[in-house]
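Quick one, tokens below. Sequence please?
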């Protein structure tokens, strides 16, 4: 990740950061919270990849080419971004955060561990950062295979990255074990509600 300017971006609201290895269930948890907790607004990340499965542009991600992404980096439109794999960028647009805060909403991020750590550094006490931990790497692999949207090469790449991300869990405010989805949803809702109300 390169240096980027954040001093020109006033922090006027709260945000909640969810990070996890791919397949740990963070998107399921985030969708549950968006349905069940008022005052939340999802920050749609930008990605320089093609949509997978039933993903929609502007809803799941802002999909763009690597060239378009690099242009937005030059124009300082991201609050944070990273090159996850060679030529594959993910980032958080300042415009997404501003839109939510202008509507008096709490921003919810669904990002990888590196992105989550970067966002926490930027927002400090205005952010709650949560790392969602899978029961095991074996379960994570099964979940990735069950998606049937990944190639074998992609699965191996994601498992390698998952190992690296699990080592960063202690850099988050909370680690939430997702070994039972119902319990994880309940725990996440309680945590988020307490943060919003305090």
């Amino acid at each position: 990740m390169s240096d980027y300017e954040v001093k020109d971006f006033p922090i006027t609201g709260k945000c909640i950061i969810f990070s996890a290895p791919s397949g740990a269930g963070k998107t399921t948890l985030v969708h549950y919270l968006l349905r069940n907790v008022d005052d939340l607004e999802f920050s749609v990340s930008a990605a320089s990849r093609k949509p997978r499965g039933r993903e929609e542009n502007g809803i799941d991600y802002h999909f763009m080419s690597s060239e378009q992404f690099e242009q937005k980096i030059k124009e300082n439109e991201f609050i944070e971004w990273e090159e996850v794999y060679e030529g594959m960028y993910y980032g958080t647009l300042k415009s997404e955060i501003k839109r939510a805060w202008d509507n008096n909403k709490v921003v919810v991020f669904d990002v990888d561990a590196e992105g989550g750590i970067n966002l926490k550094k930027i927002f400090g006490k205005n952010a709650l950062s949560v790392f969602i931990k899978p029961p095991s790497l074996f379960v994570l692999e099964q979940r990735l295979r069950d998606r049937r949207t990944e190639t074998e090469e992609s699965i191996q790449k994601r498992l390698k990255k998952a190992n690296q991300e699990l080592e960063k869990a202690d850099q988050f405010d909370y680690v939430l074990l997702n070994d039972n989805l119902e319990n994880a949803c309940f725990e996440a809702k309680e945590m988020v509600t307490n943060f919003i109300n305090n």
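Residues 1-5 have pLDDT under 50 and may be disordered. The longest strand covers residues 78-85.
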